[in-house]
Amino acid sequence: MKRALPDADTVKAAIDTVLDEASVSGRRPTVTAIERHLGIPHATFHRHYADLIDTHFRPRIPVPRAGLHTDRPQTAAAKEENLRRLRQENADLRRTLALYEEAIRQLTLENGALRSGATVVPLPARSRTSPQART
Length: 135
Description:
Blueprint: H1 8-25, H2 31-38, H3 42-57, H4 76-116
Helix pairs in contact: 1-2, 1-3
């Protein structure tokens, strides 16, 4: 049993509601919000109400104001701080990765030994002094 689709006036009222809610919340109105409000799947809504989207919805979407742009140009000091932080995070991630590589290596050796029926001998942890010491 198929549900009857809403008439054009109901869809226009839903569009008006979504536009009002978006203006109050400060968010951009979307076609998806209209579809959710009406409980209609996207393809069905687009198939039956594309003309209302073009004539009643899109022209009424407010243009974003240039003054509210959030990506402000960073100062040189802020850029340098961001680069320093990212480099530190990168170094930390490399150290963590090296630890996990070692753990996986040891687990692989132990797994191979257990599968072949050999005795598992715990290996001492390898220590890596620094990335520059590798050659």
